[in-house]
Give the backbone structure.
Amino acid sequence: MRNPQLNRNGELTHLLTLDGLPRDIVTHILDTAETFVPLAEREIKKVPLLRGKSVFNLFFENSTRTRTTFEIAAKRLSADVYNLNINASSASKGESLLDTISNLSAMQADLFVVRHSASGAPHLIAQHVAPHVHVVNAGDGWHAHPTQGLLDMYTIRHYKRDFTGLTVAVVGDVMHSRVARSDIHALTTLGVPEVRVIGPMTLLPGGLEHMGVKVFHDMREGLRGADVVIMLRLQNERMRGALLPSAQEYFKNYGLTQEKLALAKPDAIVMHPGPMNRGVEIESAVADGRQAVILNQVTFGIAVRMAVMSIVAGAGSA
Amino acid sequence: MTTLPDAEALYAELRQAVRHAIEALPAGSVHLVGILSGGAWLAERLHADLNLPDRPGALNISFYRDDFDRIGLHHQVRPSDIPFDVEGSHIILVDDVLYTGRTIRGAMNELFDYGRPASIQLAVLVDRGGRELPVAAALCAARIEIPANASIHLARDGDRFTIALESPADA
């Protein structure tokens, strides 16, 4: 079966997941993003690539940061952007997902940016839109958050240049994290020789070894010699179930402190997809420290989303 | 069969024309900007040979092409780099081959997103005819009519240039 993200010519026409995305396409996205970064320094920060195109931000699940960076990215490409907060409208009136999409397609949408709490929703949409319409997954359930994965790869490449000698540690609630899944697929695709996953047994999914990663339950052991530390957000609702005893207990074992970070390489960078819970998964001194590149991730995220949107929009409808 | 002049002879002629153009403009206000890749190579060498200060600009016009809808985004060489203030400056835009004029239109659109230049002049190694837009090169080393199905390629070997004609008959 053909990869549903690619058209018959092998061009990226939707971005749904980084799982199985060929390395040359990932690299093409990162290279294109690199050419967009200097735009932020210009008098006029826009380029005319998507002039006359309509981008619909469909957020079935709330997110301020991701929606805003997609909006900025689309506007810098000169697209017309429409933000739809679907929670508050049609879905609550009982309209089906595909009916919503058909209606918006009738309004001449060219590109849908979709965030949904159900894994696979962007896939379903991609299968039903006309060939000239493109879909970008902005996070679906626990499944994937490909643009976050790509901006993480951009950040790592920016600071470390080459992936092939790196040790990257992903720390925290991997089980419920679409960011972790996208990061692990991308790191493996780009040839990172050692990807480590660190977390309590209750927050790590089974079968991680099959994704080519090393599993650690002891954070100190897992951080030793790491070049990159990716912290994941601990969602508060996890605390209410039986998965974790308390935030204090979690911080003691899996919170990133300066003392634990000292076990990684001296030039290790610290990343976080946001929003951060200070004092739960990361200490303020680390979050604001010299090794943190968390705000740079946000800035790079705009260029990466510009690259993704312009590449899919430029794919022929073959 | 069209024979092309020697690229080094063309370059020497272009350098002379660019030197005169710079001398006619207010000192210190002139900047070279090359279109990637061939135009940027020419601008770099002109910049060095004419002892201009700082470094030349380079434009990657992929985001300003008018055929994006048909051909999409291709692999990126390197980003645009304009290391001076465009506002009020006299710019000599450099490219290797002038053909339809569409690249030059894209380049001018991009330059204006950096600021409002006092003037822009176009310098090219070869004007091959076939214009589809009202664009002209004031500084041009040679005008050679080339059939529409052929193309001219500039190559750089160390600091020497060569040009070659590729036509379907050669294939």
Observations:
- The interface with chain B takes residues 11, 28, 31-32, 34-38, 42-44, 46-49, 310-311, 313-316 of chain A (CB under 8 Å).
- The mean pLDDT of chain A is 92.
